[in-house]
Amino acid sequence: MAAVVTVLIWTSFIVIARASADPARGGVLNPFDIVYARIGGASLVLLPWGLWLTWRDRIRAQEAGTPDLARAGRSLGGLSPLPLRTTLVTGCLGGVLYAMLVYSGFVFAPAAHASVLSAGSLPLWTALLAVLLLGERITPTRALGLALIVVGDLLVGGTSLLHALDGSGVWRGDVLFIGASMVWASYSVLVRRWALDAVRTTIAITAFAFVTYMPVYSVLLWLQWVPGRVWVAPWQDVVFQMLFQGVGSVVISGITFTKMIQHFGPVRSTMITALVPGLSALSAVLILGEPLGWNVLAGLALVSAGIVFGVRKSSLAITLVAASAHPARGKG
Fold it and tell me: For 134-158, what is each residue's pLDDT tens digit?
């Protein structure tokens, strides 16, 4: 269930973010405005939740005679139910930096590029970081899948770089998408390494974004040092971004994605999202009218195949273990 919800929201996220951030489509909010609305919408749900969790933990710790333990497990004045260091690291990666990079990428590059370079390359960066931080081993089959992802990324991003000198800014979006994918992969691996709870982690990264990004951007808007329009835009546009980008993309998919990591691990979780690149690219063609060049189609096919290789390998291993544990059932 968590996988299905995550795939649906991630697919919608790519299409809606491109339609909202692309200046050519007449959007009234810039990428940093959308980040502002995203954090604001998520905070309305998650900050009261975080305060309730820290209050409950404090009461239980007092009853158990361990109040110091409760204080060590919360931070940011009780808004975050995780320790300060954990909140700062995960909040910077999953709460602020990822959103700033990915929304900025949609200004320059089409949704199909995000499908390949952001969602599609996520298993690549996650696998590499899992090797470094978790000590996981890359099997030959998974290595083949990752190699296909690399070739697919090069077909899409490399072609954009070749046209960098002709005035096209698509390559900038591609670089931002790759950076966003690396940042989210880092967040995913750390969630697994530190065995973080799905709900508490999502609350913590939102609390960090609320106490850092929101006040800083508000001051910049007040001083008119940035060309933001989130305070003067039609309220319908702002509320929509708060609901979808905040409640949907942060609260709902944040919890479901973290729940996937808990059960499947970071590498398999990102490989389960194999449908996202294809679905989002197809949706961008049908809904946004964006073209699909041969290089994007080829890159999409290679990335999707690479992800499927990883899923099939994991599924095969689970099947063999189950068959060995239950010989009769395995024969049947």
Answer: 888 878 888 888 888 888 888 777 7
How many whole angstroms separate alpha carbon 82 and alpha carbon 275? 32
* Tokens, residue 57: 């933990």
Domain boundaries, the chain: 2-327
Q: 282-299: per-residue pLDDT in tens? A: 888 888 888 777 778 888
Q: Give the integer Cα–Cα distance in Å for 244 and 237.
A: 11
Residues listed for the chain: 332
With 0-12 CB in 10 A as exposed, 13-18 as middle and 19+ as buried, what is 84? middle
Distance CA 207, CA 91 (A): 8
Contact status, residue 274 vs residue 302, Cβ threshold 8 Å: no
User: DSSP for 141-169?
Assistant: HHHHHHHHHHHHHHHHHHHHHHTGGGT--
Longest Cα pair distance anywhere in the chain, in angstroms? 72
Chain segment 190-214, per-residue pLDDT in tens:
988 998 888 899 999 999 999 999 9
- Pair 7, 304: CB distance under 8 Å: no
